[in-house]
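Ticket #4471: structure output looks truncated?

Reporter: J.K.
Steps to reproduce: submitted the chain below (217 residues) through the standard prediction queue, then opened the result file.
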Amino acid sequence: MLTTIAAALLAFSAVTAPASAAQGPHFPDPPNDKIVIDVVTVNGTGCPQGTAAVAVSTDNTKFTVTYSEYLAQVGVGAKPTDMRKNCQLSLVVHVPQGFTYAIAQTDYRGYANIQKGASFTEKANYYFQGMSQTTPISHKFNGPKDDNWQTTDKLEIDQVVYAPCGEERNFNINTELRVDAGTSNTKETTSFATMDSTDTDYSTVYHFHWKTCPPKP
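Returned output as attached by the reporter:
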């Protein structure tokens, strides 16, 4: 059953395409009609059913994925399979007529307690259904570390991939957290990394870029 999350209306003015225009350039102001996201599937060891939530910002410029059980760990109390956790989200983004979107920047946040000699890696990529996947981008953090962490993946305008105009294609997001013990003492210590925190609301934010679409013939 689809989970529907509706965005509130925006205070910005709408941008419309001239009758003879081809697909327009990127522009900073988003459309003012609401965006609705349907969560089609959620799969992965880092996001068991009911532990990932999606919400669109009120200004239509981004959407946020919040996780409650996304944790990878090694050492005392950890199972061998706990060293790597992943999540695959499949979304349908319903955008106002006459517009299409791309994701040009993503902010990942979490918390990590990594022992000396250990490390953790965050990796992510995304793609539209039927289109090529983006090249995965990885960020590695070495221990010792006991703090919040944040990474930002940002593409240049000419590198982003837009959803085809006039089509609804699933937007697929693949993320991964991996903790490597390295030279740390796994019999006496634990190293872990999460995409959320017990004391602060940490999440993943995807930033929209917009284009106008040509009118239908």
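Triage note (M.O.): checked the attachment and the full token line is present. DSSP finds no helices and 13 strands in the chain.
Status: closed, working as intended.
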